[in-house]
Amino acid sequence: HCTSSTNILEMNVPLSSSSGTVVRSHPDDQYPYTVLNGLSSGVGSDWQVASCGPDSNTNLLPTQANGGVWYTLGAVPPSSSGQNITITGYGTNTPRNNLSQVQKIHTGPLSQVNATSLCYTTETSGGNSGSQVIHANTGNAIGIHTHGGCSGSGGCNSGTRIDRSDLQAALKAAGRQSGSFVTLGAGCK
What we know:
By secondary structure, the chain is mainly beta.
């Protein structure tokens, strides 16, 4: 459930309207993607691997347009003790205003490290699904945010661990590492 219905990845998303209506990125910041593999079976079993194409105006891949910057996949810590995570995503806002579905960042404690999932009290909202779960202590991606679960009385939000064997196999089968590209000649990638 971590993809959009448009199969378009957007960067540099502007503020929403004052009523919370999404304002799309400039066409130079939109990239088509194709889902290659995935699993949608609940907490700890929810992920997708996709291949992203170049922007139709600039002919750049997202990592090229972003100055060659991407997240490094890292080791999941063995326990939650003293560990924080950061989630950057495009969740909704209540009340709906110009910060709804625009990029927001929140850091909070990692609560549990489970066999296939991570549990954390880092703030998220609807629309954050698919956001990277960054180990704040290392800066590496250790999961994919998939499910809300925090409430005023407790609970935690959850994500799928990046080191799931089926997810790692899908990344390997895709034939590339997250965010990497190689230029073989003028206009050929």
